[in-house]
Structures are given as structure tokens and as C-alpha cells.
Amino acid sequence: MKIEKLTKTYDGKTVVDQVDFEIPKGKVLSLIGPNGAGKSTVMHMISRLIAKDTGCITFKGKKLEAWKSKELSKRLAILTQSNHVQMKLTVRELVAFGRFPYSGSHLNKEDEELIQNAIDYMELTQMQDQFIDELSGGQRQRAYIAMVIAQDTEYVLLDEPTNNLDIYHASNMMKTLRKLCDELHKTVIMVLHEINYAAFYSDYICAFVDGKITNFGPVEEVITKENLKNIYKVDFEIQEVKGKPLSIYY
Amino acid sequence: MDLIKERKFTFILLGLTLIVSYASLFVGVLDMELSGILGKDFSQIEILLISRLPRLLAILCTGVGMSVAGLIMQQLCMNKFVSPTTGATISSAQFGILMVLVFIPAATIWQRAIIASLFALLGTWIYIYFIQKIQFKDVVMVPLVGIMFGNVIGGITNFVAYKFEMTQALSSWLTGHFSMVLRGRYEIVYLVVPLVICAFIFANHFNIVGMGKDFSKNLGVNYNVILFIGLSIAAMITASVVVVVGSISYIGLIVPNLVAMFKGDKIRGTLVDTALLGALFVLVCDILARVVIAPYELPIELIIGILGSVVFIAILIRRLNHGRKAIVRKEKKTMIEGASS
Hints:
The structure holds two protein chains of two kinds.
Chain A: E1 2-10, E2 13-22, E3 28-32, H1 39-46, E4 54-59, E5 62-63, H2 69-72, E6 76-79, H3 91-96, H4 100-103, H5 109-121, H6 137-151, E7 155-159, H7 167-182, E8 187-191, H8 195-201, E9 204-209, E10 212-218, H9 219-222, H10 225-232, E11 237-241, E12 244-248
Parallel strand pairs in A: 3-8, 3-9, 6-7, 7-8
Antiparallel strand pairs in A: 1-2, 1-4, 4-5, 9-10, 11-12
Helix pairs in contact in A: 5-6, 6-7
Chain B: H1 2-6, H2 8-25, H3 34-38, H4 42-77, H5 89-103, H6 109-134, H7 141-163, H8 167-174, H9 192-201, H10 203-210, H11 213-218, H12 223-245, H13 251-263, H14 267-291, H15 300-340
GO molecular function, one term (chain B): transmembrane transporter activity
Organism (chain B): Breznakia blatticola
Keywords (chain B): Cell membrane, Membrane, Transmembrane, Transmembrane helix, Transport
């Protein structure tokens, strides 16, 4: 996936300004940056949730807007943070929606199998018949990820997947997302606020400030004292833990 | 065996509906007995065919239609308190009927139904446009705005009816009743059947749209198109019921809520139960309406209003308690998880 000169303006204010980058296939890419830097907007544009103003997004050699929405949903899944729905669906029913782009309302044997695999993979087997509104935040988030797995897309996009999760659930979520890339060979792109999760679990990092990309590259190149100070306007200390540059800020 | 076990609730509802339907046929001013019909008593067979059977079918269609319309609207609007009554659909249909009475006095029932449908569609659409534009934070605001909007339309309807001296003619459509249901004047209510089948076909689409715009787009479902189809189905069902029996409130609000409490929100799983429970509820209310002051009859809207409001309050209380319980349970769970990790 290639993004060229992507721009989005809201009420005369340019939120995303001439953004160019290429998403490395089969890797984990994190978009970081302060609030209002435009990272979420970029994420929403490359997943066709909102329309771009100008620029070009090429997905698998074809312009994004030339894709049929249904075809795209077999190759690219997006999980936004607005999933606090009150809907009383069971985990299994939710995960089954992941097969909708393929089989519509008529699930076949293969679909059922993929649904069960996704549920087992996310360790939700015990609670597959429980209603999602009765689950804890971490469990519900896992149910949504299971749906994305059932959707069986090459690209998985997530908008702040650790939002509202405590440390235990958040770090488990990050491990799962890493597994999606390593074991299921998916390309994972996410917007993250916790720089250390981004540094520890991603391969590449893309940093935004004021709608522009300031840094893009492998984790070690982006997560440095100077870069982070430029991005967040706060002093940082970098310490290496297990070969990953983790940052300390206060 | 598995099927029976899994769908126990549905079979119980089906059985009850059949029994009450049968009883409903034999309630009325004129005597009618099974032996008479089997004994080829023509006057009794006539009553059955001209009055009792049409009435029963109209009741069933009304119950099924209004509850399914309510189910669709609640799902699409992501709000448990939206229904044809609280979404201005019924009052718009009534306004449409008044317009027909005023401007095309000689209209056939079909013309009336079509125009009522158009008004119901338009009214529902304006309302949905409103609530989508404004995006209320508080769930209660959504139906409140609908009730306000419905009352504004109702006010205009009353004013126009008064100006054209149509108040009396219109009153038949303002309060729902089945006493005018006779062969040849009610058949339009059958439209409910194909519309409910349509709703069943689109059930999963409605569910997905009910999960939100982003969720739908992610699965390649066109949010606006499905919203349009769903609301159109709901508005057309409502209009075809209102044209024949008048306004029937509460069904679309309480029946889907009752079923969802036990069976969840997956429409494919609840549509049949919702339809059956709606039919059963209207049947029971209709029998009460005919029995309470026999040989006279109360408008069914009155009985539904009384029973419906009691059930509605019960649902509200349960939702409040249940909501609190869910939060407490969640806190406990995280505490346990916290302790174990």
C-alpha cells in the first residue's frame, strides 16, 4: 500500500498535509504523535472510512476508490475505537460477522470452521455464547480482534487498540497483535499513544506532527532522544531493554 | 430434537398464538360455534368469513407488523426506545391519511395506503436525518425528539382536520380499533407479510448497520443504502397497518425489547419470536377489548395503551437495575482479575 500527497482539510484547517509513505508488507507499523497530529485521520482515509481531499492511495496496484467496498473488506480490516456498542450479541455471533464479506448471511462449513478457529485463537472458547455487553473491556476487545481474524484479511488496521485497557490487558493485546503478524503473516497498522508499546512491538514507526510526517523508519531509527523531543516537545531518556529502545518521560 | 430444544421459546409462542387465535374467532356478539360451522350453518359460516376471520388475520398482521417495524427501527437507530410511535412514523402516516381525506375524498383504500406510506417514509426520514445530524450523547434524547416531532405533526394534523371539519372522519385513524375490519376493506394489511419476509432477508444487514457506520464499512456493507431500505420497510409496514386499523402504539416499543432481553439482538434469531409475541399481545388485547364491556367493544388502542404502559415501565425498571448490575459485575470481575494477576 502506497500513500502519496494525502491531504485532508476540516473547516479550512489542514489536518493531514501532503503525507507520503509506503506501508511495509508483513510488518507491524505504528503511527505515533501528539493529539490532533492527524494520525487517526490518515488511518481512516487509508481504510476508506472517510474520504480524502487530495492525494493518491494505491492498494495492491489499484487506486483505493476503484476497489469495491466488499472486495476491499476481504483484504483490509479496520477496527476503530468506537466499539462501545450496547448491542446484545454473543461472541460467536459477532465473530461470525467477520465472514459477511465472503458469504453474506449464508455461512458454509468452511466459514463455521474459520469462525471457530478465530474464537479458539483468541482464547474465547469458554465464553463464545456469552453476550458481548456482559464481558469486560479486555475480553470484548479480544472478541473484536477474533472477528477481524475471521475476516481473514491481509491488512489489519487498528485505531488505539489499547485504549481503555489496563496494563495487563493492554500488553496482552500488543502480544496478540504481534502474533497476528508473526504467525498469521498479516500486515498490522495501528495508531498508538503509548510510545513504549509502539517501540517494543512494532517493526516500523511513523511519527506525525501537525499533519506531516516527521520521521518514518525502523524503530531504532525513529525512537531517539532528539526525535521524540521534536515530536512531543517533552524531554526523554532512552534506555535499551531487550534490544528495544524504551523511553522514559515525566 | 435439537431444533425443538433450541427453539423452545418459539414453539411455546407459536402454540399460544394458535390457541388464542382459535379463541379469538369465537368471541363476539353473534353466536358462532365450531359445531355450527362444521354443520354447514350458512349464517355462521358467513360471520366467520366476512367478519371473524378477516378480523383475526388483521390482528395477526398488525401484531407481527408493528413489532417487526419496531425491531428494525430500534436496530437501525441503535436505540432501544425508538419505534413507529416514538419515531414520528405513525403520526406522519395519519397526516398522510388526512391529506387524502381532504384532497382526494374519493380515493380507494389502495391510494390511501400509498399516500400514507409516502408520508410515513418522509416523516421517518426527516426524523432520522435530524438525529443523525445532531448526534445526541444521551440515549433518551433520541426518542424524546421523536415524540416531540410526532406531536408537532399531530398538532398540524388536528389543526387541518379542524379547519376542514374532518375531525370525526379522522378519529377512526387516530385510535386503533378492529371493529371496522370486514372483508373487502382490510386486505391491504396483508402487505405486512412480504415486507416482514424482506426484513428477514436483510436481517444480518440491519444488525451490521446497527453496529455503526465504521463497523458496516469495514464489512463492505453500504450503511446509507441499508438504513434507507430498513426504514422504508418499517414505514411501509406501519402505514399499511395505520390505514386499516389506525394508530397502534407501544407494540413496536415493548415487544422487541421483551424478546431482546431473553434472546439478544441478533435479528435472525429474534425476528420470528418478536413477530409471534407481537401477534399474541395484540390478540390478547383484542379479546379483552371485546369482553370488558360486552356486547360493546372498546378501541383496542385503549387496552394496549394501559397494558403497554405497565409493561413498558416494568422494562424500564428492569433495564435500570440490570444496567447497574452489569457494572457491578464488571467491577467485581476486574477486581478478581487484578487479584489473580
